[in-house]
Design goal:
- The protein has about 375 residues and is α/β, with parallel strands linked by helices.
- Helix content is about 25%, strand content about 25%.
- The chain has 2 domains: about 5-145 and about 315-360, Quinone Oxidoreductase, Chain A, domain 1, CATH 3.90.180; about 160-290, NAD(P)-binding Rossmann-like Domain (Rossmann fold, 3-Layer(aba) Sandwich), CATH 3.40.50.720.
- Helix 3 (about 150-160) runs parallel beside helix 4 (about 175-185).
- It is built from 12 helices and 18 strands.
- The protein starts with a strand and ends with a helix.
- The structure holds zinc ion.
- The site of zinc ion has 5 residues, from loops.
Length: about 375
Amino acid sequence: MTWRMRAAVLRATGAPLTIEEVSVPVLGRGQVLVRMQLAAVCHSQKLEVSGARGPDRFLPHLIGHEGVGIVEEVGPGVAKVQPGEQVILSWIRGSGTAADPIQYQSSQGPVHAGPVAVFCEMPVVSEQCVTRLHPAIKPEAAVLAGCALPTGAGTILSMSPTDPQGAVCIIGAGGVGLAAVCGAVLAGWPMIVAVDLRVARLERAKALGATHVIPAGAEPFERAARELTRGAGFDVVVECAGARSSMEAAVRLAKPRGGRTVIVGNLPMGETIQVNPFDLIAGRSLWGSWGGNVAPDTDLPRMARWAQEGRVPSSLLLGDRFPLTAVNEALASLDSEEPGRPVLDCAAPIPQRSAASSAREMAPA
Ligand SMILES: [Zn+2]
């Protein structure tokens, strides 16, 4: 039995995604078939679709790396999850098999996918990219546990001492930056400064617990941020904006002798930043963050639980909700005034013929 599903396909960079019906391959070793509930849209997909990541040798392919769904089937050797279990889908790989790349079939030929690609109804993903979730956790609470929460909150938490004193600065208040504000609140930082170009995002950062916000508009924000610390600089600076100038400012804003700057945002392929070596000699350090340095098997479900319990107010982290068919609008909304990370409703439609029938009956190949 093969399945058919709708998927957003990237056929050419710089062009909109196309919604197509594809057939799902028979599961191979370490592969998991998931019935999607929700997926979230992040800046990585925008870079990918625009071609800013350089030549794409995998076209045509599926995209999307964060979501939540229910396991439908498991391939040989999969022990981590079972059919019927709710799972977080994430690009941050945990335990389990690294499965071979997936190939779907469309009317125009093969369509590729990496270990996880979730802008579709029923993705096949690598066992490493799923993490079991308690069935009581709502999809809305879990949907950001695959990227935004670990990358944002996880990064700040991993850089925070117990009982922190001092100040953190979060540059960029998109989905990851807002999650970083939540992480700073959870860690207990007394001063949490958020910087962004858009007023609505700064208001959202305040609602999430930022103690100060700075609009990064016409005036350079660097001086205003430094003044908030009376010139001392920040203990931790997290750059989530993905802009060269703010990455360079982020290094300078860390306090000498111990301040740490973490680069989380990404630049188009080929762009680089400049750092004055003396800024590092003065005792600042420059870090990167691979998904917040989390241990996915334990940390991702924990973060979903925080959202479910309201310790992380997920309703304030989520942006507009779009059907899968409006995926291009969802991507475009990343640049809108609307704060929060856009969410895609990827659930397959309920079959019309029989209330009890499944998608298998609805769409056999
Ligand atoms: Zn992401």
